[in-house]
Amino acid sequence: QVHLVESGGGLVQAGGSLRLSCAASGRAFSTYGMGWFRQAPGKEREFVAAVSRNGANTAYANSVKGRFTISRDNAKNTVYLQLNSLKPEDAAVYYCAATRGQGPAVTDYGYDYWGQGTQVTVSS
Question: Which of 31, 40, 75, 99 has the smallest number of Cβ neighbours within 10 A?
Fold first, then answer.
């Protein structure tokens, strides 16, 4: 069992940056692939980024590639998402998720545990 808690969301101007964190409690964080998804009002949840168990491999949605960076610190049981050059269309609730698989997993049905989400708002 893994409990995930996101933090770091907030209001930022277009072009600005945020760093999201997802703290995991429970055993063996390093045995889970991790991912970030987002959901805007009226839209389906979509994949943003994912990282493998040891952090060596990552995957990104085309819409965020080159602007967002996912990383993890297994010693701190935390995964991060650095959001740079934010656009109004990046505004959403961002969710952290954990998969028992190796990762990086790009589909939400591959994930076993989910956090409650953190709101990111981007003003134009």
Answer: 75
Q: How far apart are CA 16 and CA 87, in angstroms?
A: 8
* Mean pLDDT value across residues 30-45: 97
* 89 phi, psi to nearest 5 deg: -75, -5
Distance of CA 84 to the CA centre of its chain: 14
- What average pLDDT score do residues 113-120 get? 98
CB-CB contact of 99 with 32 (8 Å)? yes
Q: Is 61 exposed, middle or buried (0-12, 13-18, 19+ CB in 10 A)?
A: middle
Query: Cα–Cα distance between 113 and 77 in angstroms, integer?
Result: 14
pLDDT of residue 21: 98
H/E stretch holding 12 reads strand 10-13
The residues facing 119 across adjacent strands are 93
